[in-house]
Amino acid sequence: MLSHLKIRDFAIVSSLELDFCNGFSVITGETGAGKSILMDALGLCLGDRAEAGVVRAGADRADVSAGFDISRHEAAQEWLRERELEAGDEGHECWLRRTVNADGRSRAYINGSPATLADVKALGEMLIDIHSQHEHQSLLRKDNHRLLLDACAGLTPDARELATLFQQWQKAARELSTLTKAGDAQRERLELVTHQLAELEKLGLKAGDYEKLEQDHDALANLGSLLQNGDIVLDRLSENEGDNATRCLQQALKALESERSRHPRLDEVVELLDSALINIREGASSLRHYLDSLDADPARLAELEDRLTAVHALARKHRVSPPELPGLQLTLADEQQQLTRAQDLDALAREVGKLEKNYGAAAEKLRAARTRAAKKFSEDVLARLKLLGMPNSRFEVALTALEKPAAAGLDDIEFLISANPGQPLKGLAKVASGGELSRVSLAIQVVNARHSPVPVMVFDEVDVGIGGGIAEVVGRVLRELGDYAQVFSITHQPQVAALGHQHLRVEKAVVDGNTESRVRELSHEERVEEIARMSGGVTITPETRKHAEAMLAAT
Fold this sequence. Notes:
The protein is α/β, with parallel strands linked by helices. The chain contains 19 helices and 15 strands. A hairpin with a 7-residue loop joins strand 10 (409-418) and strand 11 (426-427).
């Protein structure tokens, strides 16, 4: 539930804090008092577009925060946990905050952490649902009828799955069509790739082979120089009968051995020289073993030269460097696999047929579910219409088969209404009376709201065009919804206002020469005065007060 709202320097609100209760809350006030400011501020918290104009004149920044109790909203709790945005140890509260600077820049926060507007909107849609008089117009768009029906029947996940199946089927069908048309070109490319791949496979060059090949060739081609220089090094290290590095170090160590006890630093020198002697001996031994392993093999040298020639020739042919040939082979192998699959049009056609069958089965299942849901939805809306003063109306959710399958299913879905006896069913867009459209819209919204998982619902002047006894019915319908969710209604109808569990009044006043909008919760006596004002206009008479008392007592 929406538990708290804080507003600072927003529009004509300097500072405002409101606590809300469960059930049905009504918000009233004279025209121009600022009732829409509450909705604008709440919308800002929920990710609406921010503009510099919302900042109160003379202020640097507007700041709006909305606090929600999500102790019973497991989906919202899970959403916050996944993003490590939960507040407190139990994670049973959630704060959405938005700031807007005077230059138009804005920032959004979830439980104190900076957040993107996309995340704020995603979370906001889980927490609160705002129904406005503008939804009358959205209901005129037929595309929204299917979305509403699916939402009320819990079929939205099935509709999404069907759309995915449709996309998979259509993608495979387009691929089949493309490959069928481009068959000759594909076959020619496959022949070329197969020939090129065969050459590379025959060469058999693996990653790292070229570098080893060059190294081996260089060693054999320069064997004489390598042996000569190796013998010179060995001679100077250890094999010269005269002075060599090994003998010189041995003599140096012998000379220091008798002196090392005279100072600790000489121990360090002796250890270093002894280590050097060991390294020289090991290095000489390794060099001798390497030189002994070398073999002047002209045949091996010729073999290496032939292989290098073949590698360079193939690299020039493909316009790549020799080390890139193994990678090219892998690329061509992948392309060959794809082209081979593409040539197997029968297999692809079978896959398209399988995907079409999967889509068809899911579409028929969804069609059956929608048909059942349409009957129940129509009955629920019609029941509400009768309560709202349209006893002779007829309402129907029409499912008409499409000429060809679509991502949304096999049927076109439209809400049809007949407001008066003898009139045929027509689309909502053809309903002539604005009052009738308002009542139809409200009935649909109420039915939708009862099936919505969203715990907070705001009805912004949805009772426009409705009055008298029907307005009281509207109030009772909204109060009834308060048993399922937290409901807010901004209203000009006294009959609706009298039925609220909580009554908030928006007032406008001039403070120190500045216009300010304020909101306060009304006591019982204040509610009597407010409902009397709404009923009787400027002059409140004892009769209007008495009538207001009766309206409140009737709840």
